[in-house]
Design goal:
- The chain is an alpha+beta fold and 148 residues long.
- The chain has a seven-stranded antiparallel β-sheet with strand order 4-3-2-1-7-6-5, with helices on both faces.
């Protein structure tokens, strides 16, 4: 009897974790762009999905127990850096034609977010189009000044 109770508790504890992973694998990936990302100062690249909305880009790590995104980028503050081909150990995790682009911006809490994205040609085009399509009204602050 005690074995069934322990098994029941384990199943109940594991259920939310399994649900979160399945959510990312099925729901998020269906309406997003594949990407590989790393934050500034980190050595490890994270596989995941990049999802665009009217006001932000959100990066979801492929395997994570969070229901929300791991990184938010406010569209009004995104600045894209130079593009470069992968080098050294980066070649092991990239496919032919992929490029790495640096980015910086702010998240929902107005914290600075910096890092790099590794994207294929179509995914890079989607990112550039999303950034360039930001209207002047979206870039203006409520007080009338432009965001930096």
């Amino acid at each position: 009897m005690a074995t069934y109770i322990v098994l029941g508790v384990v199943v109940l504890l594991a259920l939310p974790v399994v649900a979160a992973v399945l959510y990312r694998l099925v729901v998020v990936r269906r309406s997003s762009t594949s990407a590989v990302a790393r934050r500034a100062g980190e050595q490890t690249w994270q596989y995941g999905a990049l999802r665009y909305s009217e006001s932000e880009a959100a990066f979801y790590r492929l395997v994570s127990v969070r229901f929300g995104p791991d990184v938010h980028l406010d569209r009004q503050t995104v600045v894209l850096g130079r593009r470069r081909p992968p080098t050294g150990p980066e070649l092991d995790m990239t496919e032919a034609g992929e490029m790495i682009i640096s980015f910086s911006g702010r998240d929902r809490r107005d914290r600075i977010v910096e890092g790099e994205l590794c994207l294929g040609p179509a995914e890079m085009t989607a990112l550039l189009a999303w950034v360039e399509a930001c209207s002047t009204d979206q870039v203006r602050r409520p007080g009338g000044g432009r965001r930096r």
